[in-house]
Amino acid sequence: MGILEKIRLPHVGFRKVKSVLAIFIGFWFWQLMRLFFPALEIHPIFIYIYGMIEIRDSSEKTVDLGKKRIKSTFTALGVGIPCMILLEALKGIAPEGWLHIGLELLILIGGVLLTLEVAEKVGCKAFCGLAAAIFIILIISYTTDRVFLYALLRCVQTIAGVFIAWLLNVKIFPYHGNKA
Description:
Elements: H1 3-6, H2 14-36, H3 45-53, H4 59-93, H5 98-121, H6 128-141, H7 147-172
C-alpha cells in the first residue's frame, strides 16, 4: 500500500461545495456592483454569511428560512434607520462624554427591545435574535453620516446572499432532503 493510499482525506459533501460556491458567486456579484460604485468595500461580508447559512439541508428550508431572514432584516432596518438618525442628531445635541455614551446606550437598548417586539409581531419569532443582531450591527458599526446608504447596503447584501443560496440550492442544484 503506497503512502497516498494511506492518507484519508475528509469527505467534502455537496452542501459544503455549494456554500463555497455561494461565496465565490457573491464575491463576483459584488465586484460587478463595484464597477458602478467603486467606493464599496471589496468583500461583501453579509453576502458571504447569508449565502452560506441559507444553503440548507433541503430546498424547501432554503426558501422558507430565506424569506424569514429577509423579513427579519427589513424589520431591523425599519427600527434601525430611525435610531441611526436619532444617533446622528444626538451628535449635535449631546457633547462627547458620559452623557453622550449613556444616551447612545439607551437608544441601543431601547432599539433592541423594539426590534425584538416588532420581529415577533411580524411573524419572525425564530428570527427575533437575528433581527436584534442586525439592529446592533447597524447601530454600532456604521461610521459615515450616510445612514440610509449604509443600511441599504446591508439590506442589499443580505438579499443577495439569500438569493444566491436560493439559486444554488433550489434552482441549480435542488435538494429535497434525506429520503428516510
